[in-house]
Amino acid sequence: xxxxxxxILNAVKEAKEKSKKRNFNQSIELVLSLKDIDMKSPEGxxxxxxxxxxxxxxxxxxxxxxxxxxxxxxxKANADLVIEKAELEGLAGNKRELRKIANNYDFxxxxxxxxxxxxxxxxxxxxxxxxMPIPVPLTVDIASLIEKHRKTVILRMRNQPILQCRVGTxxxxxxxxxxxxQTILRALEAKLKRGMKNIKSTYIKTxxxxxxxxxx
Length: 216
What we know:
This protein is of the alpha/beta class. It has two domains: 5-57 and 152-213, CATH 3.30.190.20; 62-149, CATH 3.40.50.790. The chain is built from eight helices and ten strands. Strands 8-1-9-10 form a four-stranded antiparallel beta sheet, with helices on one face.
């Protein structure tokens, strides 16, 4: 079972109190250490996209790679960047610009027929970052998809049994942050063989503050 809501709330409040005031709205991050995980098994290669119930102020930046009407709809839906086929082909070999795009955007959505070209051009920079585009049909409701991915997080485990992701910003209500944390814990519980028993420790912190342990 996920952690008690009151325990999470207290930890969120403590993390906020211990964090020095900055001249910007800090992110709130969840850090999980796992145990008894075989890093070579599928369980050791966790990569989950989780939609949070409460969207942080700092929403994800979305890049859409599409043509024609789908590109037009993506612009109307306020995608942060829309790359059309000719632009995509023009980026081939431009490592500096490709790295810039890969670093500046959180999620990539691509028209399915363009995926072979996307793989050739953007694959080398997006693949290692775990940001390969989500292929979609021409008939997709792109506005809804963009809105959904603005409030999603990627829970990814690389070479160590540690997971870290943003669960909110410090100006959000503690109850909203706590519910976001519960949503992530429920998703992780379903993914792990032993559920919550595979979680060694859980910490919450502001982006520049010290970690506070969430004690079960």
